[in-house]
Amino acid sequence: MDAAPQLPNTEELVHQIRYALARLRAHNGHHTFEDLCLAFTKIRICRDVVPATGPVSAGGDQGRDFETFRSYISKHLPAAAVGQAPEGPLVFACTLQQEGLEGKVKSDVGKAVGGEPFAGLHYFCEANLPAAARHKLIAWARDTHNITLEILDGEAIATNLADDDVYSTARQYLRLPEFLRTRASALHDYLTAIVANGQTHQYSPWVGLSATWLPSLADIFEPPTLALLPPGCSPNSVTDDASLHVGRSVEWQQLVDGHRHVLIFGGPGSGKSGLLGAIAMDQARQWLDGADVPAPLTLHARSFVTSMPLDAALREGATQQLGTALRQTLPSELFAQGPAEGRSWLVLVDGLDEISDPVSRKMAIERITALSEVPWLRLVVASRPLPNLDLARIRSIFQSAEILPLAADSRDRLVRQWVTQIGSADPEADIETVLTHLQKLGRSGWARTPLVTHMLCGLWAAEPERELPQGRGTLYRAYLNLLQHKAREDHETPTELSRHALALLSEASYAHLTDPSEPALLDVAVVAAGRLGIGPVSHEKMLWQRLVHDALCRTGLVATEGQQLRFAHITLGEFLAADHLAVLLKREDPAGRAQVLRELLYAGFADRSEILAFLGQAVQEAGLSPDPLVAVLLEGKPEDGMHLLWRWEDDGFAPGPRAIAGLVEIVKGWWTESSTRVAAAQTVGHVDTEEATRLLLAVAANANRTDSARPRVLAELRRAGGEVEAAAIWLDRILTASDTKAKEQPEASRVMAGNHSLPGLALLLCNRHLKDAYRVDAALRLDELLHRGVHRDPLGANALFGAVAALGELMQRGQNGVRGLLGRIAHDAALPVAVQRSARAELEHPGSAGRFR
Predict the structure, then answer these.
(1) Cross-strand pairs, 400
(2) How far apart are CA 402 and CA 408, in angstroms?
(3) Which range, of 80-84, 90-94, 504-508, 817-821, averages the lowest pLDDT?
């Protein structure tokens, strides 16, 4: 950032205005002085004024440069709007004269009293008038003419023009540069607006959402707990279980005070925006109270997607964030340096993940990185998790942390505050009702966020007797309907337009969130309305755009922010985008649906997970089967597909045959990262634990010796106990047979001496996901067990049936040594007759290998 001129304090500003007033004499600026005084009068003294007009030859101005006119509406306007004196009209006179000023005042007063009667005269003079002379003139006017005389000399005028409400007048007529506005007044105005904005509910500016049924966010804010992320550790790798933290837990005050730059990750509705707002309000209050803290500066990450200089971008972003809460336009030079000598700005950046276009997002990240090098700036950036490649540079500079899910006690406090704030008649009973429902939702991550808690409380408050939703999609549907019900009705909006408002908003949201160019919501909605045949005639286009705008706002879901429509919460837009995506999919045949989803997957925007998460319920409501769609996602983006499955489970969806097949292919893909393959196997376990076990064994067997996934998976399998534990131990022995340094865990011998040893080995032998070499090795070890008589145990005898079928399959594929083992089983009189008969059948009919899984 280039260095900017030092902003003056109030005293310096007065001196510069005073100098500009004096220069009017050198430029014959009497008329400019009159215009300046007239504008000042309208702001500070009286609005009902009329200037003197006409040439001197027509009779002159009678010493009156301007005067008041009679108004009949003063009783109906605020006192600050109309300042007409009760005693009668006021008269105003101006002069730049320096010499003989007292005589000049008396002469002008004499001329003025020769005309229509008036109650008082305000005299503006550029020259400074000693206090004694001023009081003497005031007494003379009272005693001689029975009028009230007010005199404002150059010093008084300059002092008043330095104030916020009239400084723009000084700039206009005295041609002062913008940066002369006082730093103290501009900063005080800005920080006061931050505090005022934080004291209202986060949705208070939105049409339809400012009703009294929503308590103030400041009154119900529950500070989140954050976990520090060690270098290289990705978001979502921490847990709310304190014993499993990869980094220590911290409160936001510790995080901000202890680190110059901070990057906070959080999932949808986790409270990122609420946290930044709380930080801003806390820091603003402390600054205004005189504490030695950085001054907060709040803005959206979109503010950096611009070619403007960084200081101008900061000013624009700060103004957009607060809107009408600001009394005056902020000077960009205010952000070109620290807020005060030796002090820093704390720049709070929200919504980095909401920038859809990768190029624009990269630009924002680069500018944020550049800001981190400015000595008077500290940064706190909040975002959903983004690709590591996007954040590689910024994460090397910033301390990363992640918002943890709401703990039970935090959620309880939040509900208690919510119910208390709305004035419940029986708060304890109502609190118990809401908490009981939240407990029914279990420990699902989606249910343990501030947003979901607020939504459930809002639904309960609107209709206490209703049954609250159990799934995430049904919750959003119910809350969306509630917002529409609460929103104000607009009888001027055409019925046809009102009926289609939600569909227009769904299409607009989908385009805005998936198109890298991020088309404006209103623009898309206007075009969509035209396609529906409800557009305007040509000469009414501007009016029609306004009507569409109003119809969208009166859904209660969006409102104007700056020049754009924005959703009250981005997840509402994502929910509607999923609705529109379901409509698109329903129009297509199976091949077309796959193409639509592939286009979505590779659209390049930052976070598609929420649209896809809501898609599960949307497609079911549209009468489609989610299973083929999941298969497409698993094929294109395995991680996204699996994450989607986990999210859809919240709405009651279980993976079907095609989804399971897709997960199996991920596990078998040697080119896929081990962590992804493990996750795929675990996802299968949500519906088929036996198949998941077989897949996990295959992952462990196929992992490289140095891959940490192998011991991690084997340890997980051993914790399952029984034959699964024995299978893991057998596999570990097979994999480490040639490793002289390998050491077996002490409990392995105990397990292998038990009655699960042979079933565990049979589990390996029957596992078609394993390579044949491992299965043959298991067959040889089975031969050893048979010699030791393990089959005499009932569990071992039952396991042999599956093992015999597996041996038959391996024999069919020409594996050496298997046929001999089958022959020994077929003729071993010590084995159960049924097992012997099964072995003989395999020897006689090698193709009968399909009798096991």
Answers:
(1) 263
(2) 18
(3) 80-84
d(CA 630, CA 640): 10
Of 241, 243, 251, 570, give the one whose Cα is nearest residue 405.
241
C-beta contacts of 750-757 below 8 A and 24+ residues apart? 751/725, 751/726, 752/726, 754/726, 755/793, 755/795, 755/796, 756/722, 756/723, 756/725, 756/726, 756/795, 757/726, 757/730, 757/785, 757/790, 757/796
Do the beta carbons of residue 510 and residue 577 sit within 8 Å?
Answer: yes
Tokens (6 digits) for 184: 């103290």
Count CB atoms within 10 A of the CB of residue 355: 25
Q: State the burial class of residue 125 (Cβ atoms within 10 Å of its Cβ: 0-12, 13-18, 19+).
A: buried
Category of 527 on φ-ψ map: left (φ > 0), alpha (ψ -120 to 50) or beta: alpha
Q: Report pLDDT digits (tens) over 592-607.
A: 888 887 777 666 545 6
Categorise residue 371: left if φ over 0, alpha if ψ from -120 to 50, beta otherwise.
alpha
How far, CA to CA in Å, does 701 sit from each of 444, 460, 673, 765, 769? 32, 52, 14, 13, 10
- Tokens 């003379």 label which residue? 140
Q: 349 — phi, psi (to 5°)? A: -110, 125
Residue in 430, 439, 488 with CA at minimum distance from that of residue 459: 430
Using an 8 Å Cβ cutoff, are 90 and 84 in contact? yes
The tens digit of pLDDT for each residue in 549-584 reads 888 887 878 877 656 788 878 888 889 988 888 888
The angle at the Cα of 732, spanning 728 to 735, to the nearest 5 degrees, equals 135
> Averaged over 383-410, what is the pLDDT?
83
CA distance 29 to 229: 65
pLDDT at 413: 87
Contact predicate 201/568, CB 8 Å: no
- Which helix H or strand E contains 50, and what residues bound it? strand 49-51
Both tokens of 204, joined, read 């208070």
**Exposed e or buried b for every residue in 677-714, given b needs 16+ CB within 10 A?**
bbbbbbbbbebbeebbbbbbbbbbbbbeeebebbebbb
Amino acid making up residue 514: T
**Which residues neighbour 568 within 8 Å (Cβ) at sequence distance 6 or greater?**
203, 206, 209, 483, 556, 557, 558, 559
How far is it, in rounded angstroms, from Cα 524 to Cα 518?
10
Alpha helices in 236-354 (DSSP H): 252-258, 272-288, 310-322
Residue type, 263: L
Determine if residue 323 is left, alpha or beta; phi over 0 gives left, psi from -120 to 50 gives alpha, anything else beta. Answer: left
Average predicted confidence (pLDDT) for the chain: 79
Cα 692 to Cα 93, 639, 667, 678, 717, distances in angstroms: 92, 17, 10, 10, 10
Euclidean distance between CA atoms 635 and 663, whole angstroms: 9
Q: Are 715 and 732 in contact (CB under 8 A)?
A: no
pTM over 0.85: no
How many of the other CB atoms lie within 10 Å of CB of 440? 10
Report whether 194 contacts 288 (CB < 8 A).
Answer: no
Q: What is the pLDDT of residue 607?
A: 60
